[in-house]
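Lab notebook: predicted structure, single chain.

Context: the supervisor wants predicted structures on file for every construct in the current expression panel, including those that have not yet been purified. This is the next one on the list. No modifications to the sequence; it matches the entry in the shared construct table.
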Amino acid sequence: MELAGRILTVDIGRVAKQANGAALMRYGDTTVLSTATASDKPREGIDFFPLSVEYEEKMYAVGKIPGGFNKREGKASEHAILTSRVIDRPMRPLFPKDYRNDVTLNNMVMAVDSECNPEVVAMLGSSIATCISDIPFDGPCAATQIGMVNGELVVNPSLAQKEISDLQLTVASTREKVIMIEAGANEIPEAKMIEAIFKAHEVNQEIIAFIDKIVAECGKEKHSYESCAVPEELFAAIKEIVTPEEMEEAVFTDEKQVREENIRVITEKLEEAFAENEEWLAVLGEAVYQYQKKTVRKMILKDHKRPDGRAITEIRPLAAETDIIPRVHGSAMFTRGQTQICTITTLAPLSEAQRLDGLDEFEVSKRYMHHYNFPSYSVGETKPSRGPGRREIGHGALAERALVPVIPGVEEFPYAIRTVSETFESNGSTSQASICASTMSLMAAGVPIKKPVAGISCGLVTGETDDDYLVLTDIQGLEDFFGDMDFKVAGTHDGITAIQMDIKIHGLTRQIIEEAIARTKEAREYILTEVMEKCIPAPRKTVSKYAPKIVQIQIDPEKIGDVVGQRGKTINAIIDETGVKIDIDDNGGVSICGTDQHMMDKAVEYIKTITTDYQEGQIFTGKVISIKEFGAFLEFAPGKEGMVHISKISKERIEKVEDVLSIGDVVKVVCLGKDKMGRISFSMKDVPEEA
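Prediction complete. Output recorded below exactly as produced.
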């Protein structure tokens, strides 16, 4: 089919025939092999659907050999992990809820055409491979990316268009509804964002019609499977022991620990009652979960009662403070109910920016990095730390995407910036709390961000019809766990900077999306105005005394080699003497970073001296480094030398240079130009008295 002016080709049945489903995808010259495979039998002892989504970046796809010592692809990059999550989110809700067979969706990127994004191809490939397989799946779904260049919406933008786009939006849809939204934006107004979402939804319908034709021609019959649903008789028996009113009382509290203790007591009571029935005991945990879920959903949807007693649009108690950690460059803590995040900001020279080795030709480094950590103690659990998982990487990337549009340019603020969000306590939407904490931490660190950014999440509970639903502002963990949606939106007063939407149902109507976006805007405005801006109204005028200071100067790009010197001799000499860090870009921009202002000024003076065209009459200060019969050699900047002839040392006649000068002496000289050998020539005796 033709898709956004380029040809999308799907090749079925030629490769990977032993997978349950396989599609060799080609969009332009971008080529991805997508496969879907399921185990023959359900995995025992689990109460969830074991889906694994992989996105493999092969460096040969862009004609590169992997960097580092090990010249083969290693663990997945952060970009690959984030792409896997974007594929997972629309696919997962379309599998049967009681399916327990292991399923793996694998996407191998084999060639990349800069005009055609491999992420979109992999998303479509996963849907097609699963639809034509015998794996139970209520698809198809399709995905489209939207950019905005010069105010115009662009379908599936090329890499060149993405570089200048104010919007990076990915939307997945089923036949009727939107099932996933992921966006990064440069303060896009809500109305424009909604327009972009439904432009993508329209394109998705064309793709779904194309997939339907493929399935009709190549699709296998779906296999039957062993259902793991909880027996209805067990539900009936549970309700005789624990009435709906008792379950409602157990979950109706704003204290997570109290609620968990109440459920533990109920579970023990039921285990005792069903001690003789091993079959029921095996699924009792799932049954109690389902009972809680039905109770909470009924309370919210029918009675408009939330477990913690809040109104439908009410935000939990908020608190914000800065400078809670000493000596770091910036810190802030944001608390929303039982969700608490502390973010620490670190500033460093531009050489500390992160280098990226991936398939994206444009993004080779980034100077703003956001990392998110979620230790087990934040939810009252105990388990060893094994480093960040996919969830932590995804939450960190979401917060980073939300804040990038307000980070000042290199010209204004020549630092590499890292923010680290530590989750102290978690009960719903820590990723959005980390955006609020990071904004304040950046401001406390003296980063002149353009505008403050806040984030909030809305939830959803649906009934039997599209019109029977309730959108909840600021969902806590229980409402996320038992609800149908986690709709996260971050932005400034003026527009949206990031969206991430996860749902557990088969899509959202336009009415729900518009209401959720409007609700998050209202909440975001309140958080910014009433909490964050009252805590810290503007970025600090200066960076912390513990942060490195950076001075920027501009030199002639043709003089870069003079500053660096042969094999780095000159620049290393400046660094060794002054203790600063020096970064030079290809355009002649020089950043001098240090903590001692005197030494930074000295390094600046050296660089200016080295890059100045030496003209007659210029005054320099130099150190005697060598004495000959005919004169003395002076070093007037690291790696830069000139000579004072014996006749130019003193106004009186001298027999030997050593009568006036010794090695190590520091003297003032005036430039006489260059001698016949091209060396810079100096005079001591002709230095003006006022110099």
